[in-house]
Design a protein that fits this description.
alpha+beta, twelve-stranded mixed β-sheet
Length: 312
Amino acid sequence: MKLCLFDDFIPGKIIGETVASLAPLIPELMAMPGRYRMQELIEAWDRIGPAIADYENKPVPLSSVRLRAPVPRPTKLLCAQANFREGLERTNRPVGLFLKASSCVIGPGDTVELRHPDVAVFHHEPELALVIRKPARDVPLARAMDYVFGYTCMMDLSARGMGGFVGFADKSHDGFAPMGPWIVTADEIDDPQSLQVRLWVDGELRHDYNMDDMAYPIARLIEWASTINTLEAGDVISCGVNHQGLGPIQDGETVVMEIEQVGRLSVHVQDPHKRKWPKGIDHEMAAWVKDSIAGKRVPLPSIFKGRKGYGE
């Protein structure tokens, strides 16, 4: 099943190229603030899920509505850090997640504004994101996948050269978590660890990687995160990216990502400062990430040269 929010954050069910409003079926959820309706729907899923499965009342064309991010304000938005082997046999990095501000989330067709002036470059990172189904605390690895409600696409956009790599200033700019176009419930995805992830910038293919390259699989991320803080229904965990397709985003571009069996997400880019970077894959940055994962001590990419907080 595919579930979405559209227009004024109305919960909907995707049926082919149409969407059916769930408002008549779940009027009690419509009394909730729009940005939190999906969490409420997930919490009530055991009760209302069967009725939604059979519901097909008066669908309208998808082209006639505005899709929103399916989870516009997750209580927690967690992102995996250096969680792909990048083609190497192993990684020396421990499992890890960082918090990205949930107010970064925007939806399909929205615009990312690159408004901060003090940035070396802005990068795209297309990722598979999972949505938590129910409260999870100290979850054993063998049961971790029972806590997945579904999957969606997310771009973990990054500002490089702000003084770190995964801190607030690097990851939590307004609009830096495009998400959507909907949630595909977990029962629709047989093996999320085998999905192909792709990203294009103005039609140019950049990322093209498979989820089987993850260093720490989805179940391990849930297990580990639940030892730190109790996960709640509607929390989002983004699984990380293979950096070998990394590249800049800049003014006027359209960025599109697609995950097989999940969906396709597109956003526009606007930069009031009209900065320009070389188009294409940032091979220097990609090589540096791969060397770092391999445990090599290598100089930082040239984009960081002379910037505060990065040394020589």
